[in-house]
Queue: 4 jobs
Job 1
Amino acid sequence: MSKLENDRNPVELTESAEAKRPTFGNRFLIDENDVFKHNAWDNVEWDEEQEVNAQEAVAKNSAEKMNAEDQEKFQSDADKFWDLFYGVHTNRFFKDRHWLFTEFSELAPPTDLTDEQKPRYIFELGCGVGNTILPILKYSQEPGLKVYGCDFSARAIDILRSSPEFDDERCEVFVMDATLEEWPVPFEENSLDIIVLIFVLSAIEPAKMKHVAANCFRYLRPGGLLLFRDYGRYDMAQLRFKSGKCLEDNFYVRGDGTMVYFFTQEEVRKLFCDEGFLEEQSIVDRRLQVNRGRMLKMYRVWIQTKLRKPAEELV
């Protein structure tokens, strides 16, 4: 998605400005009169009235659930809707996630590269057109790095492979339905150092999320790390849905036919910890994004989590 994931409305930042942006949580809005001085403010606390208004908006837009026939269409044809999405936007819609190395420093290349360095294996589910993979390949020249990626959309994978920055010697990408109980993947169990789940689990129907968590645990090596970032409950995007777009509680269909779920910290924690993960970080990123030209305020809520597969002796 975008450099600052903005649900189908990317926030543009220059690379130099991006490099100066601190980890979220360090730009606080102290004086409300200063709200339009910057594009974004971190850890913005909601007052009781705002929380109640959000709850009421969700109760209203989810009161009427989509009929079973339409639900089946969107869920069974999810790959087709994503193919259509990428067919329209190709690689122009989302921006490369250069913020990755700020929020997820574990993805950055080691600073002391040596020829004897242990190989690293990174796998991204829902890699799309490479907005995570391409920055990793660009900035890391470490020997032995192997990056894998899969996506539901065959069109997205084709676009990624055709990118000038794609390196098929260091990267292997393929089409896969991540909700399958058994993953057809080109690597062994207990082999991956890092698995990346960024704004992808939300596109999966809730009943099948458990399969994703279980397979992540299976393929990470003991001590391996899972990096997760996705939409949080009462995010602006959830509040904007109209009645009739709700599949089930907190799970919606967008206008382009793609689906999206909005998580709580507790849901993410239970989903992965029930499979054996240990939680190392869990943050609700409440960010106020500002359109200074139109004087608009946009309240975003994202969940960011780091989970580790226990070391071998603890399994």
Job 2
Amino acid sequence: MGKSEAQLAPALYVFGDSTVDAGNNNAINTYAKSNYAPYGVDFPGGVTGRPTNGRNAADFIALSLGLKAPPAFRLVNTSTLSDRCEGFNYASSSAGILPESGFKGTLSLGEQVDLFRKTVEEYLPLYFKSKDDLSMHVSKSIFLLVVGVNDYALNFLKKKNSGQPFDDEAAAELLREKFQNHLTELYNLGARKFVVFDIEAIGCLPIYVNQQKPPTSKCVDDLNSMVLKFNEKLPLKLQDLAVTLSGSAFIVGKNYEHILNLVENPNNYGFKDASNPCCALTPYGTCDGKRPPCEDRNSRVFFDAFHPTEAAYKIIAQNCFSGSGVCVPMNVLELARLS
């Protein structure tokens, strides 16, 4: 499990939803799958289950840390664990912070944390000489979390649209409370260095823009206002956690601003099209496997109706890793260098 001189952290552990899923849903009985072409058209080796044309943000952050992209976690396949010394990806497409938010069969954030618990308690000890060595490995590793949009898209929006009494602020506070609990669980398992992305600007996703066609905006503003209720207080909540959980450090990744900026000012980032998905769509907003994707993938912000292209992921990952303003109060490089 020794790390090479080029590695800036022992490992990267990834938790979240489809924006960082590396193929965990492939073997699950669920609709939320991307294990078919044209997904993966630009990924080395082809289709993996990532719902984009190539790498996602977690992949780019891993590469910047000098690590291999963390593989999808397989409970049934532990024989190759010794080849996976640089972390795991537990993310599951459609997953939410709340267990009721995702599609049936997918792994909620709580279930992903339970898989990490199993990793720490049953698998990783086989590869370390002592508990202290294992503890050092976990404490120096980076924990990346990208989750929350499905709690709105697949849960809160349905409740609100059904006419049920719904309080945006109460819903956001419930999410933050549950999220803090899961972060504390990871801390209790040894995690110390956290990169937490806020919820993306859901109202800028093509699936909602094309449905509602806002007349005076490039995004559906009321949908964005909903997730802002969660995002606005997230940094303060993480600051409180950093004080409570001794030795912990938290970064907030501004995923909301990233998507909003790409959609409102695509030319500033080298994109020509921030409205039309690159692949031909099914009625559900996913890629139609029978039709080829666009050829100008590097000029598109979105690959399907929900997910950015590799080019869009690369921008936020690189800025978060070594830039300023996208990830605060420090970037991932500075976090990795913390003693």
Job 3
Amino acid sequence: MALIQPVTRLTSSIIRILGCNPSPMTLQGTNTYLLGNGKKRILIDTGDEDVPEYIEHLNGVLRQEQASIATIILTHWHHDHVGGVKDIVGSTLADKVLLNADCQVYKFPRNDANDICPEIPAHIPVRPLLDNQELAVDGAKVRIVHTPGHTTDHVVLATEDGMLFSGDCILGEGTAVFEDLYEYMRSLDKILKLRPERIYPGHGNVIDEPSVAIEYYIQHRTQREQQIMQFFMQRPGQRYQAIDVVRVVYKETPEHLWPAAAYNVGHHLSKLFKERKLLLTEQDDEKYYVYQPSSAL
């Protein structure tokens, strides 16, 4: 795992500023990206709230570049991507950050809950993004691609020269978590069809072989799905919960990790139900899944 520096110039028009918020979930921290080569720049994601080191690094880059932030694009609602908005735009720390007078904050709307980010104060307006919307400054233009799965509001940003800012859909290390596997797999396929030449992820290092990484993500989940379907096909007509599948399919996984494995299996089961490969029954608020030969596509 290569060490990510607080500030890295990746190209003549892309500078990565690390969010300085390392954790087991954020890896070395959240990657934020400053795009463009003119006076006005686009900032992708803002890290966590109340991280003075990040604000200092961001402002140092802006001063060196003699530029200001004109547009902030948030890839999704999670705190480690939206938290820094208040420190950049709407707090006392904002006095230190070089902002364009009409700086706008954008995020794709959620459809599974109220589209409110507690970390962003109500007085800071967040404008809704649209799928395929384009935003540009001198030296940079990005197209918004809605990629639900990790969250319902997740987007990636594509450029005309084959660069892709992947947020948390694809990481530079390990695999991503997701809320809806069915939508997530569709989003991975959408990204694969974009044929990016390089991926700048929300966490981890730059991905120089995008097709390999994307196909690995797809293959990893597809292999698990095949194992789960085999479990049910060997036991037609019998109903099972996610933990029952884990005891067989994940038998080499330490038992203390079974609850986490059951969480992932639950997403697979939900996807298989949506695809009509499994039937779903509920009893006492518990979900049970059943394979019937007639239910298979």
Job 4
Amino acid sequence: MMSRRATIVIRSLTGNTPVTGAMRITSSFGLVGRDATSFGTCNASTMTLGENSKEQKDQKKETVGGGGGGGSKGKEVASYWGVPSSRVTKEDGTEWKWNCFRPWEAYQADLSIDLKKHHVPKTFLDKFAYWTVKSLRLPTDIFFQRRYGCRAMMLETVAAVPGMVGGMLLHCKSLRRFEPSGGWIKALLEEAENERMHLMTFMEVAKPKWYERALVFAVQGIFFNAYFVAYLASPKLAHRITGYLEEEAIHSYNEFLKELDNGNIENVKAPAIAIDYWRLPPDSTLRDVVMVVRADEAHHRDVNHFASDIHYQGLELKDSPAPIGYH
């Protein structure tokens, strides 16, 4: 059998200093083993792709035929297709507990961004987008009032939709026209993923009641389809709506911070998932989480207003490089 050996040097996740360790993966028509050293930073990790021969034999005993359903609870799902289950560990050897994101997807939020920037609506489409978003805020204020944890949960279930819809439609457009997207597919899907991680965080803080979950179903269903149609009809309108939605999100998190500072909401310890995702200090609190989430929303505001401006200038998104990694 032919085999190949590759050595991959991974950079530190906390800066530009190269990590001293290296991960070696040996492949023989598949991934069968590893020779990995420990990495020197707190966020570094090693991924095991494949198992040793004994573990592979154990897996085969639990093989699921035909690539079908799962095995017993607590056991690993195996298949003759040979797709290995990835394992990620921290530098101290402990297991990386999150499957929704990996260490190399973590980052430190830029809190220096201008939170007061506002796009003044001038054209008819801008005014339509602005007042549409303002009208959506009224029922939210009535329903949630000062329950900002649950408000944030609802906000993020909606905020994660535009990036996914825009990325999906740009993806299909790229396929139809046989042309690149300028990185905008990745940028918009990255935005959607970031918003989803906001939701995963606030789910640890606010435990939604059954009727709030039902409301999420209804609002998301209506908003997804409405935004889908709006993006098909006018991408510049759709991105402007998202830009104003993010401005409202910043306002909501400002109010959230006021309630925390006034002692009306308990400033509890930050959820573990937030500490790992934003690389926060171990002693971080809910207030720290709201600060980084608010900064993310400000970045999404800028990206979407920028995307709308591109369309207003008679260009397409692919004509301007996408701000990939700009959370």
